[in-house]
What does this fold into?
Amino acid sequence: ATAMAAATAAATGRPRYSNYGGPDTPRIALVLTPFNEENVMLARQIGATDVVYYNMDDCPPEDQLLAAKNLVEKHGLRLSAVEGGPPMDQIVAGKDGMQRQIENYKKTIRTLGKLNIPVLCYNFMPWAFRVGRTSYEVPIRGGALSSEWRMSEFDNDLRTEEGETSEEDMWTQLKFFLEEVVPVAEECGVYLSMHPDDPPLPRIRGLARILNSPEAFERMLSLVDSPNNGIAFCQGCFSEMGVDIPATIRRLGHRTHFVHFRDVKGTADSFLETFQDEGQTDMHAAMQAWKDVGFNGIMRPDHVPLLPTIEDGHDVGLKAKGYFSGKASGYTMMGRVWAVGYMRGLLDAVFGRETSSVASVQFPA
It folds into this structure.
């Protein structure tokens, strides 16, 4: 994977983002909830080419990942990413169990390298309060349901057992973590992809949050300057930061390995998640920006609305593991069907049908 990356970079003048064959175009990936053969077949039918194994609490052992990989490949797709990864609560907080969790993280990276799963998406939010929403039942277009965040409706005076935490302590812990794990990722051909804080606010309930601006991501990348230390560019989170999305893609795209192709209306203090065609971002311009930077990795729809006329909200046990939200968790399947169609249309419009079609995707042997 490293040799291929170097050869491609030399030939094109730009980095190869992941160890994929095929044309220099993004590919659509899906989280499947639940992860079963029926949904793998659905992903194939609607034009996805890749699958993301999603678990915000832990990473499964090698035998379970191998079984998932085999099921995905049976239907002509590729298991290209693990999103969530091993527990990091001690790492983020700088507690006594930090080194033990780092060693476990290295083990996971080695497993992904062995199985040729090239992307590991993670975040560095404090585990005492990670993703924040104030409602998962907001009616949007046609009675679909979505989620929103309103700081004005949130009790930010509460404190967790962690108390008040320090921004600079978190940067110190992140630097130590990256210095430990990035060399292993380089050795194994795995691309670490950092997701922004969600919401991208500097502090919630006394807990510092450090990855909430383009400048913060540039600082993160500089801590260990390696292609394997990269970004999961969540367009929704970056939009909440108030930045211009196409311009920020051109700014950070050279170190992006994974894209969450979603949109919102609002800012970090107050936003509503939308259908991809109703948010505040010019999504065609965003796709053009991904072409301009030469991105050829995976992008997936994220936090899709619930379509209550044809599907129910997740019951316990059927949600993406680690999500304990209300009806519109963002992780139901039918909204993804609409989202993939929208994304395929944009890919054809920007990259051309000849190179962006499902038939053009080739995976290495």
